Every structure is written in C-alpha cells, then in structure tokens.
Amino acid sequence: MKFVGVTSCPTGIAHTYMAAESLEQAAKAAGHEMVVETQGAAGSQPIDPAVIAAADGVVFAHDLPVQNAARFAGKPTIDVSVKKAISDGPGLIAQAVAAVEEWKANPSAAVGAAHPAAAGGGLTTKVTEGVGTGTKIRQWLMTGVSYMIPFVAAGGILIAIGFMLATAAMGGNGPIEIVKYGLTAEGNYNIAQHFNPVSLTSWAALAFVMGGAAFGFLVPILSGFIAFAIADRPGLVPGIVGGSIAATMGAGYLGGLATGFIGGFAALWVSRWKVHKYVRGVMPVVVIPLVSSIITLGVFIVVLGRPIKWLSDELTKGLNGMTGASVALLGLVLGAMMGFDLGGPVNKVAYFFGTAGLATAGTAADSTPLKIMAAVMAAGMVAPLAMALTTVVRPNLYTEAERENGKAAWLLGLSFISEGAIPFAAADPWRIITASVIGSGVTGALSMVFGATSRAPHGGIWVLPLLGSWWWWLVSVAVGMVVMAVIVIALKTVDQAKHGSVERAVESATV
Amino acid sequence: MSLITEPQVVLDLAAPDRHAATRILAETLVGTGRCTDLETFLADVRAREEQMATGLPGGIGIPHARSAAITEPSLVFGRPATGIDWGAEDGPATLIFLIAAPDGGGEEHLKILAALARKLMRAEFRTSLMEAPDAAAVVDIVEKEVVNP
Question: A25, A34, A165, A465: least surrounded by Cβ within 10 Å?
Fold first, then answer.
C-alpha cells in the first residue's frame, strides 16, 4: 500500500523528524511505501499532490494542527500524537493498513478510494472480504480488467503505430493493405519470412503483427483473471483456456466474461470438495484444473458459445450502426460517468466499457468501439484540467495548497488521470462533481459526434499522435474543460458571496 | 560546521535527576561558547520538558529547545553510568542527547538537527554511540553519520 503522513511537534527540531523516520522505516519493513511531510522548524516540503492522490491511507502524528489538512481529505486517516509514532511505528502502520482495508470494504462511502493497491510480490486481486454481491462482482470484473489493461496498452499502441507507418508508407491504402500481413500469411505478406529493414512497410507490418499478437490475449487474460479473482490460483486454467476459446469462437469479451465467471465458480466448487487425503495432494495441480476445465470449456463450446457470439455480433453491429443522436447520447452518458466519481466505481465501469470495446474492435481500422475509447479518455481528462484552469483564472477562490494542487492537476489531466481532481472534489464535493458530470458529459458527447478514435486505452495527450481525428478530440476536451470551469467558478462565486472568502475562512480556522 | 566537539561529550554522566543532568550537559555549551546564558537556556529546555517529558522508548532522553541563548545548532551527548528517569514509560534513559538550536536559526542549521533526529531512530546509530570508547569516537560518529554523511 501507499501511505502519506504528516508529523509535527512543539519545538519542531526533534520529535517531528524522529516520528517521520520511525513511520518510514516501519512502512518499509512491512513492504509499504510511505512519504512523510515533516512540518518542523527546518521548513516543510509539501508532499506532491500526485503522491497524495495515489496514497491509500494517511497517518497524522502531530502535536500541532496539521497544516493544510484539506489536501488529505477523503482518505482513511490515522490521527495520533507524535510520540505514538516514535514509540510504535510498526503498530501505527498496521493500524493504517487495517483502516485502509476497512475503507475498501465499504467503498460506497469513499470517493476515489478504489486505487489499485500495489502490493509487493505475488498476484493480487481487488477483492475484499465481507462485501455485498454487487460490489464483489465489480471487484471480480475489475481484477480481470486491471490485468488486461497492460495488454491493451502494449497491443493498442503497436497497432496504432502500425497503421500510422502504413499510411506513411502506402498512403490512404495503407490501413487496408497492412491488415493482410501476418506470421503465417502467404508470400510477401508473411512478415516473419520477408522482413526488410529498409522498407517502411515492413516496419509497419511488424508493429501491426506484434500488436495483434498482444491483442490476442485480451479476452483470455480478462477471463482468466476474473476466474482468478473468484477462485484464486485454481481459476486460472479454466479462465484462460475458456477465454481463449471464447476469442477463437468470435464471442468477444462477452464470451470472456462468461468463461471467466463459469471457470471461477467451477474451480471454486471443485476446490471445496471433501476428498481423501491421498487425492488432496494432487487437487491443485491435477484435479481442479482438469475438472473445472472440462466443465467450463464443455459448457461454453456446446451450449453458451454460439448464442453469446450472436449477441456479441449484434452488439457490435448495433454500435457500428449507431448514428446522430444515439452516438451523442452514448458519449454523454459515458462521459458523465467518467466525471462522476473521478476514478471510483462508476468511472471504472465506463472505463471498462471503453477498453472492452477495444478487445472487440481488435485490429479493425475504424469502428465505433474505438470512438467510445476516445470519448472515455477525453472525458476522463476534463475534471483535473478544468480544476487547474479555475485555479489560474480565479486564484482567489482557492487556498494556497489548492493552487499548488492546480499546478499538478494540469499534468495529471493531460495524462488522463482523473484522480487529479480528487483533492478539489473532496474539499467541495457537490459543486465540483456537478460541474464535472456536466463538463465530462459534454466532452464525451462531442468526441463521439466528431468521430475521434483511439486504440490506446490510456495516455491522454501523450498518445495524441495515435488518435484518429486528434484535432477534434482536443477540441472536445477543451470545450468540456471550459464548460466545467465556468460552472465551478459560478457555483463557487455564489457560495463565496454567501459565506465570505475561502482564504479568510481557512486562515481563521488555523490561527 | 560542527554539531558536536569533544568537550560536549559526557561519558560518565552522574546526576540524581534529569534536571541536574541537563544542567551538567548544558554547562559544556557555555564552555565551548555556544551558549551565552545558561539559565535562559535551561529555562527554555525545562519549558519544553514540562509540556511533555522527552524520554523515549529504548532508554533515550532528548531534552531540547530553541533558545535565544544559543549561538549555533549543537548536540551534547551524555552517557550516564546508571539510567536517569526521563519520563519514558519503559524505564530510565541511558543515552541523553541535549539538542540546542538558536532561536530563528537559518534553515541549513535546522536541517542538520533534523538529520540528527532521524538518525536517533536508527538502532545501529544508537548502538555505535553506546559502544563508543571515548569522546573522540563519539564526535567522529556524529560527524560521519549526520554532518557529512
């Protein structure tokens, strides 16, 4: 896990730093990351807002009031005296870990608390104990998605580069020509046999083929790690093989979802059998993979595969056939979802829809799922960018710390990290989120209507060269950003007129 | 800049209580010209001590203050033969660090004290001080670990 903290003491020359050292050492020893801001006499270096945004939990070990505590709002927090941190660093870290776990188990109360926990060693899931069925299903899905994303990123970017080079090498015909290349294709189209280092077409084909190979894993990995989240390691075999069959049958990610869930529950069921102790030893390596695979693959191939393929085809046809108002509406809804909780569950559902679309679109040159991905990415950039803009246009609406956050929010926004707006949203939820939903929705709708496309699942401005109609995509981001900024400024100004300046309110609170 | 010099090391600190011990340690700062007014400084240390005793687990006492009577950031190291009660829950202190900072001193100075405070949390640093054979060794350890790491 990642933690941030603040230490302070009356004199500011000893305890502050000892407590910081104690916490950092204890965190390190327990395999976590911790960054401490020492609010002592030697000046305090504020923690980078991006680090705060990425933290799972907060530890305050202080004898003086924490300066600019609002920066840490909306995260599970342990609050103790400075001496406690010095005498029992490990105990405090353990407490903080427990607080984070508890917090995650109850995500409905948390804005943006659902950060992927970067645990050290071993495969991890996003599954927490003792939560409702709905939350569990979402956590299973998100585990699958989080393992799939790197494949989408590597594959998507390679394919996009392939198309880009192909267009450069062969002109408008490039994107049509390039899809004929492969590893087993006949004649010159076989890139393994006929790679020519001085031919741009060869490089284009190479990038395209590599990307396509990575894309081949999307559905198997999605399926395999959904099953993994449900049944732990025994779920991997039925999940991955099932996903591979779903992909081969053309059932797309819908098929992968089915094999993931069937595989997971089959493995879970078999692993709970009461068996003789002689058999118990071979359960994990032989019996569970074998029996759960027979169940999952059999059911999918014989019963579920074809109807799901039909459904998947209809869905793709439906999406590709969408025009005018329905395209705009889809973009509006997805955009609003991206802006609603800035990295929380609703945001992730919309993001899942975008990335799953990429898996369906595969290596096609142009299709609606690619437009959805572009719209989702554009919408996810709006909130941090708009907040950054407002801190520049109306600095007097914000505290010093918030203005600092604003500077970081530019970079976070441009990089498609919606969480950059969380410090603002946590301090003033309903105004920011109202504005964010509207602004992000506008951007989503515009991006869809303009027909911008993306086969990169992440990266924001940094993957701009890989986007289709990037100019219009930028326009849609900018329009949403301005819309949201105007609403934020309007709402905050009205509030300030009522309650007086933020600055003054905060100052009088800390004096 | 040196944080500690040999006269600021008291290896056989003999005192009945922490206030007497603090006085003995503080007197070395007068001797080295780092403290211009002993009573003012002691009052400042005492004021901090009364807010909350500075004894810490592991047999450590860190009396400290920022005081107008102090001319440069300084450390006095005391090693009593028998532990002195410093208000820690787990028993008397056997390593005493008197930390003195000038009032409103520059950032650079205070950074060295911050580095010292962090070092105090490291067991190997404390052990090496506990086992140091003489004053020169103590000065050497502090210089190496804190002032010029």
Answer: A465
Which residue's structure tokens are 């992730």?
A348
Whether the predicted model's global pTM rises above the 0.90 cut: no
Contacts of B110 in chain A (CB under 8 A): 13, 40-43
Domain housing B13: 6-144
Looking at the complex, does the CB of residue B54 fall below 8 Å from at least one CB of chain A? yes
Whole-number Å distance between alpha carbons of A5 and A71: 11
Q: Concatenated DSSP letters for B61-129?
A: E--EEEETTBSS-EEEEEEESS-B--S-TT--BSEEEEEEEETT--HHHHHHHHHHHHHHT-HHHHHHH
Contact between A14 and B56 using a beta-carbon 8 Å cutoff: no
**Are the Cβ atoms of B114 and A16 closer than 8 angstroms?**
yes
Report the CATH number at residue B55: 3.40.930.10
Q: Distance from A22 to chain B by nearest Cα, in Å?
A: 6
For chain A, the domains span: 2-105, 133-320, 325-510
Q: Is residue B105 assigned to a domain? A: yes
Beta bridge partners of B100: B65, B74
CA angle A79, A82, A83 (to 5 degrees): 120
Q: Does residue B1 form part of some domain?
A: no
Residues of chain A contacting residue B101, judged by C-beta atoms under 8 Å apart: 11, 13, 41
Q: What is the value of ipTM here, to two decimals? A: 0.86
Query: In chain B, how many domains are there?
Result: 1
In a domain, B149, yes or no: no
Please give the CATH topology (third level) of the domain spanning A2-105: Rossmann fold (3.40.50)
Q: Residue A143: which region, alpha, beta or left (left: phi > 0; alpha: psi -120 to 50)?
A: alpha
Provide the 10 A C-beta neighbour count for residue A96: 26
The tens digit of pLDDT for each residue in B27-75 reads: 999 988 899 999 999 998 988 888 888 888 878 888 988 888 988 888 9
Q: How many CA atoms lie within 13 A of A511 on its CB side?
A: 6
